[in-house]
Amino acid sequence: MSRISGRFAELAASGRRAVIPYVVAGDPQVSTTVPLMHALVAAGADIIELGVPFSDPMAEGPVIQLAHERALANHVSLRQTLAMVGEFRQQDQATPVLLMGYANPVESMGYAAFAEAAAAVSLDALLTVDMPPEEVAALNAELKRFDMDNIFLLSPTTSRERVEKIAELASGFVYYVSLKGVTGAATLDAAEVAINVREIRALCQVPVAVGFGIKDAVTAGAIAEVADGVVVGSALVQAAADAAEQGGDDAAVVAAAAALVADIRAGVDAAVSS
Questions:
Q1: Contact at 8 Å (CB) between 227 and 197?
Q2: What pTM was computed for the model?
Q3: What burial class does residue 272 get, using C-beta atoms within 10 Å of its C-beta: 0-12 exposed, 13-18 middle, 19+ buried?
Q4: CA-CA to 146 of 20 to 30 Å: which in 71, 118, 171, 184?
Q5: Which helix (H) or strand (E) holds 152?
Q6: For 236-241, what is the mean pLDDT?
Q7: Of all residues in the chain, what percent carry a pLDDT higher than 90?
Q8: What is the Cβ-side half-sphere exposure of residue 85, based on CA atoms within 13 angstroms?
Q9: Cβ atoms within 10 A of the Cβ of 144, count?
Q10: Which of 10, 49, 134, 142 is an active site residue?
């Protein structure tokens, strides 16, 4: 059992839901990332989703696009992102870490080389936004050599046939994108999400986490009632960016982000215990 599968099993056994915060490696500063990861765990995060900086993050809205730009200005690469995971692992061997990124950096490194470097720092999973399931076989084979999960995205427009195909390949969990559009867009419709998550669950054997549109304890709680996990990205990245823009040091940035995750943790726990 992978570390991610084990974490979801632990949460299910206790009637809880996963809180999965997303941050971009090297944003707002390189020095912020690892302390931020630890602070998010302390605030109640169950899995850390670490974005790999990329020049054309097509799935992202303006907030996370700017985070990618800041990280690239700080010269953060895929290898440096993996090094941050390794540094995090020096103190935390328990919390699953997932890299979320785009195909080009992984392809440039080479699938085998990436998998070996990722295994060396005890990475748990990879989510490649722009790699369709039809093209994932070679990468999947390398990840499976090291028991790493491959996380796939599903959306409101994903056909039943495609969900079935992804269900055959998915491990760890599937990430349901609750909105049509980019991260940070539109307003979350919890009732619609509930219907779609039920349909996905009927076809997938792995947990379903929901992201896009979750920005506070209320939205997180609404999704926690129907999904196995909630992902918070844009709101968290913005909280960190705001603290930095206001002149805050690394500690202030970390505190602002951790406060939001703690609030979301409380909202999620309240929703599923009521």
A1: yes
A2: 0.95
A3: middle
A4: 71
A5: strand 149-154
A6: 96
A7: 88
A8: 31
A9: 13
A10: 49
Marked catalytic residue, from 10, 60, 69, 161: 60
Question: Residue 191 class from Cβ within 10 Å (0-12 exposed, 13-18 middle, 19+ buried)?
Answer: exposed
Tens digit of each residue's pLDDT (9 = 90 or more) over 14-32: 999 999 999 999 999 999 9
Distance separating alpha carbons of residues 240 and 257, to the nearest angstrom: 5
Alpha helices (H) in the chain, listed in sequence order: 3-13, 30-42, 62-73, 78-89, 103-109, 111-120, 137-145, 160-169, 190-201, 217-224, 234-245, 250-273
Closest CA to 149 of 118, 120, 104: 118
pLDDT in tens, 38-85: 999 999 999 999 999 999 888 888 999 999 999 999 999 999 999 999
Separation of alpha carbons 142 and 86, rounded Å: 19
Mean pLDDT of 128-137: 92
116 is catalytic: no
Is 60 annotated as catalytic? yes
Residue 154: phi and psi, rounded to 5, are -125, 150
DSSP symbol at 15:
T
Assess contact for 111 and 137: CB atoms under 8 A.
no
- Tens digits of residue pLDDT in 134-177: 999 999 999 999 999 999 999 998 999 999 999 999 999 999 99
